[in-house]
Amino acid sequence: MNTQTPNEPLQALDDETWRDVVTAIDRTYSELVDYQERLEAQNRELDEMRQFMASVLSSISEMLIVIDRAHNIERTGGALSDILGIDTASMIGTPLSDLLEAGAGKALSDAIAEVMRDRRPRVIEVSFLTPDGPTPLDVSVSPRLDPRGRSQGVVLVGRPLGELRNAYRELEASHTALQNAQAQLVQHEKLASLGRLVAGVAHELNNPISFVYANTHALEKYTRRFETYFDAVQSGASRPELGALRDELKLDRTVKNLRGAIDGAKEGAERVRDIVEDLRRLSADGTGEKVRFDMVQTARTAADWVVRGTKTPVRIAMDGAAQAFAMGNPGHAQQVVMNLVQNAIDALADTADPLVTLHAQARDGKTVLQVRDNGPGISESDAPAIFDPFFTTKPVGKGTGLGLSISQKIAQENGGTLTLAATGPNGSCFELSLPAGDPE
Ligand SMILES: Nc1ncnc2c1ncn2[C@@H]1O[C@H](COP(=O)(O)OP(=O)(O)O)[C@@H](O)[C@H]1O
Ligand SMILES: [Mg+2]
Fold it and tell me: What is the CATH architecture of 287-440?
């Protein structure tokens, strides 16, 4: 290192001065190395940052456009080139309006001007030119400021509206389809239980009606005999003649039978009246009218109706208390028991000696009815799902999967519960529990 000009005479430096110079050089050099290292580290950081930004920008599914104050494109990113079908590099420095459908530029440049003025972001629908023709995009316009808070332009983030709208429309369509399918299934279950009910009722009514019919038939026959006898009296027949006619017409026996026929017809009619009464109770809707009723009787009626309506031969046994009073809507309870008995009968299709047992009892202030079957039981994997709406293991057209979920809801509306109490290879047991009715 030579700092002297050539025409100055060379002066000898003393040792002290040399040491100072060397130390200064040393220090400067090590500062230089430090500085260099820091610069390199910053460079690396900058590089990483740039790569990070680039990767983030390119993975954004929205399009990104950075606009300078003159509304020219400064930077792009995201899905812009995909959406517009142009190479992004060629856009830099070009006016934003080049990307827009003719006539769409005014609204956007107005929005940009406003954002730059009041620095509040806005969202606007703008039509861009794409390979598929003009496409509306939902564009949010946000202000871009320099470190000193001066406006530098704006950032546009856009997303194709059509895509969003289509996705939304598809979602809505499948939602509607699902709703329709559900409504149909509910309707199906309603019809199915109505069908079961009607079949049971028809069967039930058939008996007493034929009873009434047979007895009125007998009454008609007796009436004819009396008419014959009275005609003979009227036409002045002699006492012996009348006596013979009485024997011939078996009038003494007929008088005795008359009472029986009338009683029989009355009994049949009363039975019909009771059935209609049952039906009325069943159809009484959930107006929340809760009364005290006998669970045993309700369960028996329900089971009778289901059994009459099915072709499967199945034995129904009643055990437990002879009477068990509950509070609630008896029509609702009947509906639940009908569902449970129907499920039990369905499960018994392949059982050798099919048996459904109804067992009512009072327990902890509740009246509990168990419906047991000796069917194959419910598998461990199915059991948690059986109360879910639409869960069914039955073939399409047979099961709707709504019986248990509706029944459980009915039980809850009546202040009770419906649970699966036990299940296994020897059968299942469902429990309907309702608040107990006051003892009489
Ligand atoms: N007693 C039972 N024994 C065996 N499985 C049953 C019994 N009761 C209900 N299940 C099961 O629970 C499912 C749901 O019953 P449910 O809600 O009434 O609908 P569905 O009878 O229409 O299938 C049935 O498909 C069946 O798999
Ligand atoms: Mg069912």
Answer: 2-Layer Sandwich (3.30)
